[in-house]
Structure formats: C-alpha cells, structure tokens
From TrEMBL:
Quaternary structure (record): The complex is composed of two ATP-binding proteins (MalK), two transmembrane proteins (MalG and MalF) and a solute-binding protein (MalE).
Swiss-Prot/TrEMBL keywords: Cell inner membrane, Cell membrane, Membrane, Sugar transport, Transmembrane, Transmembrane helix, Transport
Keyword Hydrolase listed: no
A cellular-component GO term for this protein: maltose transport complex
CDD domains found in the cross-reference section: TM_PBP2
Keyword Membrane: yes
Protein name: Maltose/maltodextrin transport system permease protein
Family: Belongs to the binding-protein-dependent transport system permease family. MalFG subfamily.
Segments crossing the lipid bilayer: 20-38, 44-63, 70-94, 273-299, 311-333, 360-385, 406-429, 476-498
UniProt source species: Neogemmobacter tilapiae
Membrane topology: Multi-pass membrane protein
Length: 512
C-alpha cells in the first residue's frame, strides 16, 4: 500500500499539470453539485459540497498539505456518510417536518394561490365538433360555439358566439381523448366571462380561491375570511383557528421532545416500548450467550463423536442470510397454515395466536432471534475455551470439584472478561434490531389508544421507522427527536463498551 501511495505521489509531482487538471475537475464537480443543490432549495447540502470543494483544492494544491492527501478521502467519507446524517437527523427533531410540512414557505404560497374555485352558476355542459386542427366547443345550453381550435395541448383562447348546433358532434369517448387539449384552452363568452374546462363534461368560470393582501395575509373569496401565515406552527390559519394546508417547514424548538414526554398518547406507548426494547436486547444477549456457550462446551467434550458434522450443522443458521431465515420463520409461525401450529394442534390441541397476542408475539420474536444469534456466540466461545489452561481444570478435578463447579469457578471467570465487550456490542445491536421486528411482525399487534403507530413487539428503532414512514402523517420531526434520544442511549452503550475493552486490555498488561 505504501508503495502505491509513493508511486502516486511521484506521478503527481512529476506531472503537476495532471494534478492541477484532476484537482480542478474535482473542485468544479463539487461546486456544480453544490450549485444544483442550492438551486433545489437545499442550502445545507450545497454548503457541504462547497466545503468539500475548498478542502480538495487546498489539500491537493498546497505544497505543505501533501500528508493530508491520503487522509482527506477517509475524513470526507466519515463526515458525509456518518456525521452529517446524524447531525441532520438530530436537526429534524427540532422542526415540524412531516408530510403536512414538506414545502418551503414560498412554495407553500404558490400551492395556496394555485387553488381554484369553480362558480357553479356558470357551469355548462359541452360537446366537441369538427376534426383535427379545427375543433370547436359547443355549449348547447346557451347555443354558443367557439372559434376553431387545435386542442393539441398548447395554451390557446377562443371566443364564443351564438350559432346553430353543429351537424356532426364527436362521441363522448372521442371527446375524452382530447381532455389534455381542453384543459389548456380558455373560452370567452359574449359577456366577457372566461370559461375553463372543469371536467369531462363541463366548462365553467374558474377563479383563484384566495386573494393575497400582504406578505402573510390572504382572503378567501368564498366567505371573505382572512387567512394568515403562522410561522410558529408552519400552517395557514383562518380567523376561526382552522388550519389550511399546505404547511411549510419551521423550527419548533423542543416541542417534539415535549410531546414525547407530556402527551399520554405518545409517552405511554413509548415508555412501554423502551422497557420492552431493553428487555428484548438483554434477553437476546443473555440467551444467545448461554446457548452458544452451552453448545461450545458440548462440542469441546472429548468423547463426542462426529464433532465436525455437528459444528457444520450448528453454524448453518449463521451462514444463511438473516432476512431469509426471518421470512421462513414468519411462515412457520403462521397462525392458520404454519407448520408449528399444525404440530401443536396435532399433539396438544393448541393453536397459539402468535401474531395477535402481544405476549406470544414477543416470545416468538425472542425465539427467532435466539436462533439467529447463537452461532456467533458459539464460534466465539469455542475460541475462548481453547485459551483456558487445562492444568487449572485438572487441578480442580483432582481436589474433587465437579465438572459443573470447574466450569463456574475456573472456565467461566477466564472467558467472561474478553466476552464483556462483545456482549455489550450484542446488546447495542439488538437494541436497534429493526430488521427482525419489521420482517417478522411489523411491530404488531398494535397497542390500542395511541396517538401514533405503536405495537407490542416494536422496539425503539422500528417504532421510529413507523412514525417516520408508516404513519398517516409521516412525522419526520418527531421521528428525529426519538432518534436523538436513541442516539444518546446507544452512545452511552458505546462508551461503556470502550471502557470495558480498556479494562480488559489493562488486565492483560496492554493499553488501548
């Protein structure tokens, strides 16, 4: 690797024009990407690419920054793909970002002003006469016929004038084919009323639903009510307090966090989900550790025959992709046609409601996770058991200690310290094991009486995913606030893991 780096440096130093050309191309590409993002109303992403362009230019062109040329790609990758998503998600937690508040304020005004209202008094049925390039719109109720129109989808206008009914009118199905062209035309009646196509069968006068009176003030034509922009909530509000869509993104401070801790419809299920998440992560960690260690000890038994075959069979769950195993188990636990219920019914007359009973659903989730996780622990335990000195075991056995006592007093204390960081990592992984939950139960069965989607088998990760992407309101801001809380918890676990690894290393006379 060092040879390759030295060769690259040599090439760039021999051909400075190549270095300038490549660096200039990278800087221009970053600046162009930043400009496009800024033009798409994404200033944060645009600023990120601007910083990247400056960093590339300085590092690869300044003679004193040669040592940073091989570090910059790694730093940029960490900042773009790790740090930035974390910071951006946390920032969302302090906004009202949701499916109701996706737009910017200017875009929300454009959508509001684009709303049109139809005057039912002017609504008239129509028919089409003529042929390609010379179509005419006939309003039979008023006896008015338009000037010839192309109806090719281009904006056009025509006057209406009294006339006799045309001899040949197009059938309704033929007129439907011209709906794109009809939508683009404006017909002017003899009284100067402008009529537009409002459906497959009618033309009518169409007017803007709202009139803008000021920067944040509007009036609704239908009833004259005033509409004002509330920049604290990100919605337009009528005089009676009714909110009008669309909304726009605004910062709301700690409101999402207040909702989490004060609203019973959120606080209650989230507290229940948090407790279940901790229980699920701990039982998954303890269960896989216990089962993996037990199987490793059995495979270490010197009188066991066929160890190689047993090892292969027991490692198979680790070799199969987890999502395939989860989907297979979902079919096995099917309440109506699954093999597990068929066997239980045939033997004991039982047909458990695995997916509709909260307790059974949690037991099912734990059982499947135990199957998926024990091979990893078994492989680790097989390696750690090899490091335990046989002399210690033999000495304890000579003094009359049973095999069980030798295991708990000699073997387990020696393999547990190196296991501790791995157990903490396993706990943290299962704390966010949303793939298992979403593929197996989708969080169900649902908890009744909640203000947001929450289920008995939801863990914090799957709960956040459902709030962000599966709720009717897709509340990204609230999901960002929950993610921030999860980030703090997992960060504390990572710090505890670091301390555990450092203590384990110090016991061995090393320092991390």
């Amino acid at each position: 690797m060092f040879m390759g780096n030295n060769m690259t440096t040599s090439i760039l130093s021999r051909w400075p024009l190549m270095r300038w050309a490549l660096t200039g191309a990278a800087v221009l590409a970053s600046l162009y990407a930043g400009f496009l993002l800024y033009a798409q109303a994404e200033p944060l992403f645009g600023a990120m690419f601007l910083v990247l362009a400056v960093a590339v230019g300085v590092v690869f062109l300044h003679p004193r920054s040669a040592t940073w040329r091989f570090v910059l790609p790694g730093i940029a990758a960490v900042l773009i793909f790790v740090a930035f998503p974390v910071v951006y998600t946390i920032w969302l937690g302090f906004t009202n970002y949701s499916s109701f508040n996706l737009l910017t304020y200017d875009r929300a005004i454009e959508v509001l002003m684009a709303n049109k209202s139809i005057d039912p008094k002017t609504e008239r049925k129509f028919a089409i006469a003529g042929g390609p390039g010379a179509y005419q719109v006939w309003l039979p109720e008023d006896g008015l016929l338009s000037e010839p129109l192309a109806l090719d989808g281009q904006a056009a206008s025509a006057n209406l004038s009294p006339a006799d009914e045309p001899a040949a009118l197009l059938a309704q199905k033929e007129a439907v084919k011209l709906r794109k062209g009809l939508a683009a035309i404006v017909l002017t009646a003899p009284d100067d009323t402008e009529l537009r196509n409002t459906g497959l069968r009618a033309f009518a006068a169409v007017a803007p639903e709202y009139e803008r009176l000021g920067p944040d003030a509007f009036r609704r034509h239908a009833d004259g009510q005033m509409l004002t922009a509330n920049h604290k909530t990100g919605f337009f509000t009528l005089e009676d307090g009714t909110t009008i869509a669309p909304g726009w993104r605004v910062g709301i401070g700690w409101d999402n966090f207040k909702r989490i801790f004060t609203l019973e419809g959120i606080r209650g299920p989230m507290l229940s989900i948090f407790v279940w998440t901790c229980i699920f992560a701990f039982l998954s960690m303890a269960g896989t550790f216990a089962l993996g260690l037990l199987l490793a000890v059995i495979l270490q038994w010197p009188h066991l025959r066929g160890k190689a075959a047993y090892r292969i069979l027991l490692i198979l769950p680790y070799a199969v992709p987890s999502f395939i195993s989860i989907l297979v188990f979902r079919g096995l636990f099917n309440q109506n046609f699954g093999e597990i219920n068929l066997i239980l019914e045939a033997m004991f007359g039982l047909r458990p409601d695995w997916f509709t009973d909260g307790t059974l659903a949690r037991i099912m989730i734990l059982a499947v996770n135990l199957w998926l996780g024990y091979p990893y622990m078994m492989l680790l335990a097989m390696g750690f058991l090899q490091a335990v000195p046989e002399d210690h075991k033999k000495a304890a056995a000579l003094e009359g200690a049973s095999a069980l006592r030798v295991f708990f007093t000699i073997t387990l204390p020696q393999i547990l310290p190196p296991f501790v960081p791995l157990l903490i990592s396993t706990f943290a992984f299962n704390f966010n094991n949303i793939v298992l939950v979403l593929l197996m139960t989708r969080g169900g069965p649902d908890i009744p009486g909640t203000a947001i989607p929450a289920g008995e088998t939801d863990i914090l990760g799957s709960f956040t995913y459902r709030v962000a992407f599966m709720d009717t309101g897709t509340q990204f801001g609230l999901a960002g606030a929950i993610t921030f809380l999860i980030f703090l918890i997992v960060g504390a676990m990572a710090y505890a893991n670091l301390l555990a690894m450092r203590r384990a290393a110090l016991r061995k006379g090393a320092r991390i």
